[in-house]
Amino acid sequence: MAEAAVANRKGGVVEDLRNHLSLLVSGIDQEPTITAFKNGSADKNLYVAFLVQTRHYVALTAPRLEAAGRRLKELGEHPELADLFFQKAEEESGHDILVDDDLCSLGLDPEKTLAENPPGEWITAYNSWITAATNGRHPAAFLGSAYILEGLAVERAGKVARALVASSSIPKIADAVTFLDLHAEADIGHVDDLERILAELDDAAEHDAIVMTAAATRGAYLGMLDEVGRRQAKAH
After folding, report:
1. Where are the domains of the chain?
2. Which residue of 54, 58, 79, 179 pairs with 98 in a disulfide if CB–CB is 3.0 to 4.6 A?
3. Which of 1, 19, 16, 3 lies closest to 201 in space, CA to CA?
């Protein structure tokens, strides 16, 4: 990940974020929900439950990026980062529709499906955290979440999508992995870019906010997978 581009000191924010990403990736590999996706044992309901919870947090990404940019402008801090947040908001806009397309490919009405399946506890907590962070004293905290989620997409999204298509018996699954596939490709290079930006931030309190948000994102994502798996197990 752009080793030469980042002067990464021991205990620095980039190193801390890499550690959180590594912990998330190893945690993902042990989650029963992801294991089911990879070995073909997941049924349609489990995958739909995953897509729905994904949709509930992805829909917040662009608005929160815009909010972070506006808050930085209000504070008079990091004008280039604020502009980057606005740019990223445009890039992320509409990504929730990719999930809708996957739900449609599975024969579901996205609006009805989302209405019947509200955000779970972990995604509700994550959305609340991100909202508070981007409205708070250190809106750059959003970088922690962006690093974790984009890093995870690069490390695992494509692999999970390919495994689903190769091993799952879910009807039309090959047409229902758009979100995973496109994020795996789109986020290549984004992590390196984030590391360069993070290496230029030198405020200790800001670093703490970024790392705490990364940790909250890691915990919420693993919690969401566990919650989805347990709910589907009870339904059977």
Report:
1. 31-235
2. 179
3. 16
Cβ atoms of residues 6 and 196 within 8 Å: yes
For the chain, the residue count is 236
Please state which CATH number belongs to domain 31-235: 1.20.910.10
26 Cβ neighbours under 8 A, 6+ residues apart: none
pTM given for the model: 0.91
The answer to whether 139 and 133 have CB atoms below 8 angstroms apart is yes
Tens digits of pLDDT across the chain (236 residues): 433 333 344 458 999 999 999 999 999 999 999 999 999 999 999 999 999 999 999 999 999 999 999 999 999 999 999 999 999 899 888 889 999 999 999 999 999 999 999 999 999 999 999 999 999 999 999 999 999 999 999 999 999 999 999 999 999 999 999 999 887 665 556 677 888 889 889 999 999 999 999 999 999 999 999 999 998 888 76
Cα gap 152→76, rounded to integer Å = 32
**How many Cα atoms sit within 13 Å of 40 on the Cβ side?**
6
